[in-house]
Amino acid sequence: MTRFPIEEFSSLKTPFYFYDLRLLERTVKEIRRTARDPRFKVHYAIKANANPGILRTIQAAGFGVDCVSGWEIEAAIEAGFRGDRIVFAGVGKSDPEIRSALEADIECFNVESEPELRVISEIAAEMGKTARVAIRVNPNIDAHTHAYITTGLAENKFGINLEQLDSIIGLAKSLPAIDLKGLHFHIGSQITETEPFVMLCETINRLQDEYEQKGVKFSLINVGGGLGIDYAHPERHPIPDFEAYFTTFHNHLRLRPDQELHFELGRSVVAQCGSLITRVLYIKEGTSKRFAIVDAGMSDLIRPALYSAHHKIENISNPNGELHHYDVVGPICESSDRFGESETLPEVKRGDLLALRSAGAYGEIMASRYNCRPFPHSYFSEN
Asked: Per the residue annotation, which of 108, 201, 333, 372 is the catalytic one?
């Protein structure tokens, strides 16, 4: 259970992110325990949270890292990740980013288009290097999640459609300075059912069988990430069901004996260890609503405004007070700057501290300076 040190919080400037490093350490230990197949290699998706304190904890656990920009590669290396444990995805890799990745001798580029593959080959040849690549494939699987975080459908901007795969694999094998290592998939985020992952395994099995008949073998398969968390009950389920997740791939994916299976987990690693702490500025009585106006806004946590996402809200200053209903809203001049409607909370007063839970992923990393607001600070607890 995450413990909020209210006495310490009272002197801190809000809003800020609070990270429970003990929970993060428990989470990475559980991943290591459940991903026990020696062919399973876990890469942390740094886009979820690149806070240096978070990265150091994950790097110490021995994970690799999944990056989607050259700046993320720089952050990973600064945190101690080795270049040969870095994979680089993204539909719009610039020439300087490709060069820096080659200079770092990264483990693999996840290639998302034919033009990108040609550019990587040209730059690698100019540098006298060989680029290891995996082709990102769109398996056209509906992950039953939010449209903005569904990535595996044919109409998404990511990856290669199945009907184009033959030609791009042939191109990869013909280009100089390219070493084709495998296939990469990522069907979406916040997936809470096993069915989409089973369907992904079945697609990969079929593709592997087809390409082996053509004499093409892959040394690695990358299934991305996507495992969801319980936003409604962060204390009841502080650690996702990694056992079921990894067992699904172990039971349904027919890996070859000499293949590695790569995972790119982000949200499921860090979301539950983080909370956004905000202070109540005003209680405003409307005609039919009561508003709790807080000092955190969509510039600090954009998920509710961007995805209509909901984070559990707790009054940590008065956890046992009489229950009332509040719309919890921020100070930014946008109607979408709200964290919850008709939230049932113990009585909220000016100055109370509220915790927006499960904010360790896509919270601090997506913060902005909209309205010229400062970035939120971060604090850690290891007790």
From this structure: 333
